Amino acid sequence: MLELRNVDARYGAFQALFGVSMQVQAGEAVAVIGANGAGKTTLLRAISGMIPVTGGEMTMEGVSIPSLAPHKIVETGIAHVPESRRLFPRLSVEDNLKMGAFIPAAREKAAERLDYVYGLFPRLKERRTQLAGTMSGGEQQMCAIGRALMSGPKLVLLDEPSMGLAPVIVQQVFELVRRIRSEGYTVLIVEQNVRQVMKIVDRAYLIEVGRVKASGPASELLDNDEIRRAYMGV
Ligand code: ATP
């Protein structure tokens, strides 16, 4: 579904990704793990067109995406749930969700999509008029995921959905990810919480200083001593 071949990305003069190659097949859940500053967020930003790709090739279902404007990338079926959720705190839950349906194809079906998201996450329906900024961290993450689903995506990019949440809420967020996966969405998830995320993905890529250092089935990476020492504290 998504394919990256030798992708470079930079912030001005600073190169953050070096020749990154990866694939995500339809229906898979794939994790991107690595230390702080490794380039995980940058990778998701490059895929969704928030920062320019300066080398290599990237395709979504065969369509080249680096030259597309971000909203056109959304139209290819990619939705990004950014780090720290980035909700509009002074807008209601429902208005935040509607913001996710900004591409024309989704706007036409916004009412239908809203019902679908409320069906999936009844808590959001209960809280539809509440200001998003007053919700709990876990609820805000649910709202951010719901907003991404409003565009009718095939592939959902999740950037550290467990960040800043209490352990019990972290469990609930991973459960949400499992749910959207069972709904048929393909998932690419960045997580620091390696032990937890490996339980819900098929495969993972380890990124170090902007490069893919290792990749493979989650079970295989969990057996890798170096990964266990560096990222799981064992
Ligand atoms: P974390 O888990 O800490 O968010 P990460 O793996 O997601 O880490 P990135 O945020 O992708 O890392 O950062 C990769 C590198 O790019 C870092 O060296 C970071 O300082 C740099 N970087 C990130 N954003 C910018 C920016 N807007 N301008 C310049 N450099 C940036």
UniProtKB/TrEMBL annotation:
It holds the Pfam family ABC_tran. Signal peptide: none annotated. GO terms for biological process: L-amino acid transport. Coiled coil: none annotated. Residues 2-234 form the ABC transporter domain. Involved in beta-(1-->2)glucan export. Transmembrane domains (TMD) form a pore in the inner membrane and the ATP-binding domain (NBD) is responsible for energy generation. Belongs to the ABC transporter superfamily. This is High-affinity branched-chain amino acid transport ATP-binding protein LivF. It comes from Variibacter gotjawalensis.
